[in-house]
Amino acid sequence: MVKCRLYERKMSQLPIFKNALQHPVFKVVxxxxxxxxxxxxxxxxxxxxxxxxxxxxxxxxFVAVGSGIELAREVSNLLPGKPKVTIFKNYxxxxxxxxxxxxxxxxxxxxxxxxxxxxPSVENGTLHDDQNRRDFTINALALSVNEANxxxxxxxxxxxxxxxxxxxRTPLDPNITxxxxxxxxxxxxxxxxxxxxxxxxxxxxxxxxxxxxLEIISKERIVDEIHKILMTPKPSLGFKLLxxxxxxxxxxxxxxxLEGIEEKEGQLHKDxxxxxLEVVDNIAQTTDDLWLRWAALLHDIGKAPxxxxxxxxxxxxxxxxxxxxxxxxxxxxxxxxxMNDKMKFxxxxxxxxxxxxxxxxxxxxxxxxxxxxxxxxxxxxxxTLCEADITTKNPKRFQKYHNNFKRVREKxxxxxxxDHIRNFQPPVxxxxxxxxxxxxPSREIGLIKDAIKExxxxxxxxxxxxxxxxxxxxxxxxxxxxxxx
Length: 485
Ligand code: ATP
Ligand code: MG
What we know:
By secondary structure, this protein is of the alpha+beta class. The chain contains 25 helices and 15 strands. The chain has helices at residues 2-13, 24-36, 45-51, 68-78, 127-132, 159-165, 174-180, 183-195, 201-210, 219-230, 236-245, 248-251, 253-256, 272-286, 290-298, 303-306, 320-334, 341-351, 355-360, 365-375, 379-388, 395-419, 430-437, 443-458, 465-478, and strands at 40-43, 59-64, 86-88, 93-98, 101-107, 109-112, 121-124, 142-144, 153-154, 167-168, 198-199, 263-264, 267-268, 308-310, 314-316. The strands form 5 sheets. Strands 3-4-5-2-1-8-9 form a 7-stranded mixed β-sheet. Strand 6 and strand 7 form a beta hairpin. It is elongated and about 95 Å long. Bound molecules: adenosine-5'-triphosphate and magnesium ion. The site of adenosine-5'-triphosphate has 10 residues, from helix 8.
């Protein structure tokens, strides 16, 4: 009896968050749980983000002490239109979509792991067992959707306190947590970056010790976490943590190779690793395009293999853009990233990353036309990258460089309005060249077409039909062609 009272007192001390459960689906799940007499809780990301007053994507994870799949079916029965329940038998989970939200159901479980896999063997368990298998205390927070204590927080590991203190901590011994499922090391860093939290010291140490376990994680999973880190407002936090824990060299050795400053004959070069992180943070302020952020991360990777010193020029990185763009290909391949136009875009940005800088000192019309021609539809993105690349701490230079790019941008608008280079279409077609000179497909046609394009980019002739036709006649004559009557 005494014990029971104590328990009641403890329960009643737990805070209630009814407001968290205002979405109509919670009532439905509550009803289904009652019908099946299943203890049910909403758990994980939704609860964490509600308590942080953070926007959460519309997905709710439910854990039922019993069958999550049965609960999902019952919920579907109670919903208008009985939405389809998708069952993932291997995971013992079920999912359904309703009213713009995604509901995921799982039965409470106990997990145990083997050495070479992050797939545990699973048995049924209590809510507490299920909370134990969660990665972090802040992700183990559960709110009851049961009628008797609707909205009550179940927080066995003081996750609420960790939310207040902005701490990432594992419910169990971190060495076990990370060794069991090494993906959690990346999740820890990703959450620390997204939420701007600190990783508990013990946990950080455990990540260092278990870093090499990353090898059992699929590349796709790793890249998924890197994407998420890159999409935060301050990605450098994550990359710094990856470096400090020893994970970075396992994922991006080519970034690690950028770290350090060498001195020769009193001459230093900048630390291109820390510079890169600043560039990524800068670009995170100006674009949400994941691939442009990737371009910022990789824009200097060619600098490690191309670094040279000579007495006359000091430190140089000749051709680092070209070498870097080749490295992008290898890196994407190694990490099983998409080898499609996204990769080509990143390669192009890396390859062209110095072009606007060269141009900024002397903005000529022809150089601007060439830049627009070569960058095509990505010229704006390239300018965004170059502006993010300005990391000088000298305020005068900072202002000067930005003003230079402002001039380049203005010139780009002016030139584009007049010359329409961006989606360049040859003003005289190959067919017309063939017809004019009575040619069958041959080298001469390419030659003339190229000469016309060059003349336009150089500014020798305007990007117009009449001028191009006249130029074509001239050029044809020069190479010994005669127009047919
Ligand atoms: P978000 O969806 O915003 O990234 P989340 O916390 O919802 O964050 P999910 O990956 O959707 O993250 O996972 C849902 C919940 O499942 C987590 O909150 C956590 O409790 C648990 N979880 C997910 N992955 C793991 C893992 N690898 N190890 C332990 N628990 C995990
Ligand atoms: Mg989630």
